[in-house]
């Protein structure tokens, strides 16, 4: 069982699945969502995710690159917890922000980097990690 939570601890969740895929996303929206150079996304079947405490606030947006995403975050501390989308390849999955897993985030090494044309110029591609210009990874 993997546990996650927001910074203030009012929202906690867990998942029980070994069916995960981890990617770094360099799209402009993920940079805004995380306030960082990229987001680290651990994709887990939605059926494996259980909300333990609290209720996240949700915000939906058109990515401008095809899919519409719904972000779940804590209304008190603003921690982004996960994203969801009905778009092909995303439907039925929670795209968990690895930072919400605390020290457990180290267990999910990325298999790919997506939206690589938007990677910050000062970042090098991860060694031994597949590189993709969009979201069609086949991972």
UniProtKB/TrEMBL annotation:
GO terms for molecular function: carbon-sulfur lyase activity; metal ion binding. InterPro entries: CENP-V/GFA, Mss4-like_sf. Coiled coil: none annotated. Residues 2-119 form the CENP-V/GFA domain. Keywords: Lyase, Metal-binding, Zinc. It comes from the Eukaryota. It holds the Pfam family GFA. Belongs to the Gfa family. This is Mss4-like protein. It comes from Clohesyomyces aquaticus.
